[in-house]
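Input/output pair, single chain:
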Amino acid sequence: MKKKISAYWKAVIIILAAAVLLDLAAFSRKFCDLYIKYVYPHISDILGKITAPIPFALGEVLAGAGIVVTVLIPIILLLLIFLRKKPGYRRFTAAYMKTYLYIIVSVFMSYTLNWIIPFRSSLLDGWEHTGKKYTSEQVLIIRNTYAEKLNALADMQQRDENGAIVPMDREEVMEKVGAAMNSISGEFPRLKGHYPPMKEAAISEILEYMWIGGYTYPYTMELTCNKYTDRFYFPVLYAHESSHHRGYYQENEANFLSYVGCAASDDPFIAMAGCYRIFDKMDNEYWNFLMNNYDEDVAVAIYEQQPQVDPRIFEDRYAALDEAQEKFDEDDHPLEEYSQAAEDAAEKGWETQAKVLKENNYDGDMLLLLEYFDGRLY
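Output:
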């Protein structure tokens, strides 16, 4: 008599087969673009709204639980050698392994739906690289434009009697950044929609050692940040991770959108945070060009002829960094002995990611900015 397949194995086989088929379909850019347009927004919005009220990062807890469950497997199997004659333990082991397998295939499906397919969709809704070679003069135009914008924004900040910017709480920052990102959704349609809150990571100490500002959990669609992130950078970080949440998963496009989105804000502080990133990117590029083509004295002289940024902008930036450092110093650091190992792992990880992502790595935002302003500023 033919043995029936149990409901458990049917579910595992169906989920696994569906995930594999979707992964194969994801090799088609057209399929990914249709998915990101018609399916993904519903998943990201629903999950984002479900997890938003939870006061901690559920994804972080689930990841930690997954590590514990995985580490226990060798111990459970080892004990089976000695307890194999105990029916109760055998049933427990079988149930444990079946549950673990089901979790694995479910996570695989979740990553397929919320990361793999979106990651393979078209860059910025079908952005076509121009293939142009951009010059230092064009870099300088963007640099000087945003130097002037920053100088105007420096006067618009709400400051206390000592000239320091009055801090804005993170909830208000996130609300204003979400509005700014929605405001450019006419050009970048995926940005239109819900922006969930960003939660502080319990492992912020390790993230600090690894130079990680934040990340998005694909299986819960939560945005998580290093709690030591300074308030000058936080708007851009939130915009970057929110871009991932809205379906822009390449690092260069998320960087680009975070700069342009924040710069478009009608709030002076959010706009300053975005404009500073664009200026800083172009300023460094122009400075490197001068140093590579002129003697240092000549390079300095040429650079000083350009519009300079109001010193208050840099004071604001350094004050925010000092404030974040003070917050870090005030806390206990039980994992400090692992800091060097974390730094080494991060360095290797960043190098590997750069090789895998290539032009879509973080630094690829420079080309996107140059192409974006082509026809707008030059």
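Strands lie at 198-200, 214-217, 222-225. The chain is about 65% helix and 5% strand.
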